[in-house]
TrEMBL record, chain A:
Belongs to the RAD18 family. Residues 126-195, 214-274, 321-360, 380-431 are annotated as: Disordered. It is found in: Nucleus. This is Postreplication repair E3 ubiquitin-protein ligase RAD18. Keywords: DNA damage, DNA repair, DNA-binding, Metal-binding, Nucleus, Transferase, Ubl conjugation pathway, Zinc, Zinc-finger. It comes from Rhodofomes roseus. SUPFAM superfamilies: RING/U-box. Pathway: Protein modification; protein ubiquitination. It catalyses: S-ubiquitinyl-[E2 ubiquitin-conjugating enzyme]-L-cysteine + [acceptor protein]-L-lysine = [E2 ubiquitin-conjugating enzyme]-L-cysteine + N(6)-ubiquitinyl-[acceptor protein]-L-lysine. It holds the Pfam family zf-C3HC4_2. InterPro entries: Rad18, Rad18_fungi, Rad18_UBZ4, SAP_dom, Znf_RING, Znf_RING/FYVE/PHD, Znf_RING_CS. Residues 193-221 form the UBZ4-type domain. Gene3D superfamilies: Classic Zinc Finger, Zinc/RING finger domain, C3HC4 (zinc finger).
From TrEMBL, chain B:
InterPro entries: Ub_conjugating_enzyme, UBC, UBQ-conjugating_AS, UBQ-conjugating_enzyme/RWD. Keywords: ATP-binding, Nucleotide-binding, Transferase, Ubl conjugation pathway. Belongs to the ubiquitin-conjugating enzyme family. Pfam families: UQ_con (PF00179). The active site is at C88. It comes from the Eukaryota. Residues 4-150 form the UBC core domain. This is Ubiquitin-conjugating enzyme/RWD-like protein.
Length: 431, 168
């Protein structure tokens, strides 16, 4: 990459856009890049925001996949048939992302310290007398690889305090990360209240499952005696099953009631998703009413209303896939809609900015363009030059010195190339 | 400029420069992140071997929901490349997926070079030669390979000379 970077591009790389490549490669920090990548949506490459799963199992940010499905009813990753009715919240992934978002910066710092330590060690191997003492914080171990400057101290602290540690581990079983570690829920006693991971209400631990199954309606139940699980098992089951049958409506199926204004304000009742509207059956006035219902402007023509309402439905429903505590307020959603409209307008209408405005006709004079960007292309050529054995490149031209600049990764595709070459050779022989 | 699109392009660049697939490179123009220059090395053991083919990728706000326009700046002789350098490649049209990034696009084009699809020809002559007269196909491709090493002005001069030779 050192070959491609110039000032402007260094700016781009330094820009505050966190990416898996921030972490050291796997030989220094195994798995960290992969971990960071695994918690990112493959459409926007941000950490998942309201992750949802399709039937095929692939996960995306709710807003990303809803936008994709509007264009094409297939999974963006595997192309299996998909629709927004399949979407299910991935609550476990959401809490993993939340935890990683909190831990990422710290992990990155540790990883970078490790890189520094390794390079320091490498220096010490060359100049063994230099600052040997300072690197040693504990013990007289002679092997440098085993010695980790940061690690032991934090581990030691954790071991010295076994009781809070145990509690913390247990409380992690609840999918939500507790904000206040001072009051960790202890599952052992039935009277304890814990935060519902869905609606954030305090609910007795014993009925948390029924509570969630009932779409967070059931908040109070006579807690059964916790110490006799065996005899009561049958009763428990019939209660759970009966309760689920009576109360187990999925929130998105409750279409009969029309009452959702501020999603975050409602605790006892999960707000409903907005249904998709077949606008062509509606009169102008009805479309305007739809916009009015949500406090949206009715400027522009019918086409603009429909697009505005469609986008609103997408933003609104994607917002419901967030944890209630993370949901955006309607005002914020309206601002997001406004922002989208502004960027849409700039993209479709003839904006005033000359650069990046329109696709076609951007570069008309190919020769002039290449001449103007000659230096850049020269760098790109060197960056792309594949690594290969010296003999191979000598046979074609004299540029062997640079051949080593290329990068690896070619090996897997070599098989394809050679079979392909075989095919070409065969055809050559035939022709 | 939409921040989503911009952030995505910055990430595409980070990925492409940190962990580049072999034989491809690309970077945004210093003054415009929506315009990318790219180079694809002709894959080894194909007629395109050692060619340094230059491309231009033009993004708009809808990226990654919509594909960029991709165009060869270097003259190409390939069944799926039009005379003006535009490509006939399904993933840049109806088979686009928003999960693709610049590295994926360039890798696909690279594999198109060693695996042309003569069934959807953009250059009928190249497609015909590819099917029926491999020797001539290779000769024509090699000419574009050698041309790709030249400076743009030299290329233009060469094309002009060829043009006058053909007409004269």
């Amino acid at each position: 990459m050192n070959t491609i970077s110039n000032m402007a591009q260094l700016d781009l790389l330094a820009a505050d856009v966190p990416d898996p490549t921030d972490f050291p490669p796997s030989d220094i920090a195994p798995g960290l890049r992969l971990l960071d990548e695994a918690l990112r949506c493959s459409v926007c490459h941000e950490l998942y925001d309201a992750p949802v799963t399709l039937n095929c199992g692939h996960c995306f940010c709710s807003l990303c996949v809803r936008n994709c499905l509007k264009d094409k009813e297939e999974c963006p990753s595997c192309r299996k048939q998909a629709s927004d009715t399949q979407l299910r919240k991935n609550v476990a992934l959401e809490s993993a992302v939340k935890a990683w978002a909190a831990a990422r910066e710290f992990t990155l710092r540790l990883a970078k310290q490790e890189v520094q330590r390794l390079s320091k060690n490498a220096l010490e191997e060359i100049h063994p007398r230099k600052r040997r003492r300072s690197a040693r914080t504990s013990g007289g171990s002679s092997s440098d690889e085993v010695e980790i400057v940061e690690g032991p101290s934090t581990l030691a602290i954790q071991r010295r305090q076994p009781v809070p540690n145990m509690k913390k581990q247990r409380s992690n079983k609840s999918p939500r990360i507790p904000d206040t570690p001072s009051t960790p829920p202890t599952p052992g006693s039935s009277d304890d209240l814990i935060d519902c991971p869905v609606c954030q209400q305090r609910v007795p631990f014993q009925i948390i499952n029924q509570h969630i199954d009932s779409s967070c309606k059931l908040t109070d139940a006579p807690p059964p005696s916790p110490r006799k699980p065996k005899g009561k098992a049958k009763q428990e089951w019939s209660k759970i099953l009966g309760g689920a049958a009576a109360l187990g409506r999925r929130p998105n199926k409750e279409r009969d009631k029309e009452r959702v204004k501020s999603p975050a304000a409602q605790h006892d009742d999960e707000p409903e998703y907005l249904p998709t509207v077949s606008y062509h059956t509606l009169k102008d006035r009805r479309v305007q009413e739809l916009l009015n219902e949500h406090g949206l402007p009715t400027t522009g023509d019918r086409h603009a209303w429909v697009r505005r309402h469609q986008k609103w439905v997408t933003l609104y429903n994607a917002n419901l896939d967030r944890t209630p505590s993370d949901r955006h307020m309607p005002d914020q959603l309206r601002r997001e809609l406004q922002k989208w409209e502004a960027s849409e307008g700039a993209a479709s209408g003839g904006g005033s900015a000359g650069l990046g405005k329109k696709k076609a006709g951007e570069v008309t004079d190919v020769v002039a363009y290449q001449t103007a960007h000659k230096a850049e292309f020269a760098k790109l050529v060197e960056a792309a030059r594949p690594k290969r054995s010296p003999q191979a490149s000598q046979t074609h031209n004299g540029r062997t010195e640079d051949a080593k600049n290329g990068t690896g990764q070619r090996e897997q595709s070599n098989g394809d190339v050679s079979t392909q070459a075989q095919g070409v050779a065969d055809r050559l022989a035939a022709g | 400029m939409s921040t989503n699109c911009r952030r995505r392009l910055i990430r595409d660049f980070k990925r492409l420069s940190t962990d580049p697939p072999g034989g491809i490179s690309g970077s945004p123009c210093p003054d415009n992140i929506m315009l990318w220059n790219a180079v694809i090395f002709g894959p080894a053991d194909t007629p395109f071997e050692d060619g340094t083919f230059k491309l231009l990728l033009t993004f708009d706000e809808s990226y990654p929901n919509k594909p960029p326009t991709v165009k060869f700046l270097s003259r190409m002789f390939h069944p799926n490349v039009y005379a003006n350098g535009e490509l006939c490649l399904d993933i840049l049209q109806n088979r686009w997926s928003p999960t693709y990034d610049v590295a994926a696009i360039l890798t696909s084009i690279q594999s198109l070079l060693h695996d042309p699809n003569p069934n959807s020809p953009a250059n009928a002559e190249a497609a015909q030669l590819y099917r029926e007269n491999m020797k001539e196909y290779v000769r024509r491709v090699r000419a574009t390979v050698e041309e790709s090493w030249l400076d743009p002005e030299e290329q233009q001069a060469m094309n002009a000379a060829e043009g006058s030779a053909a007409s004269g």
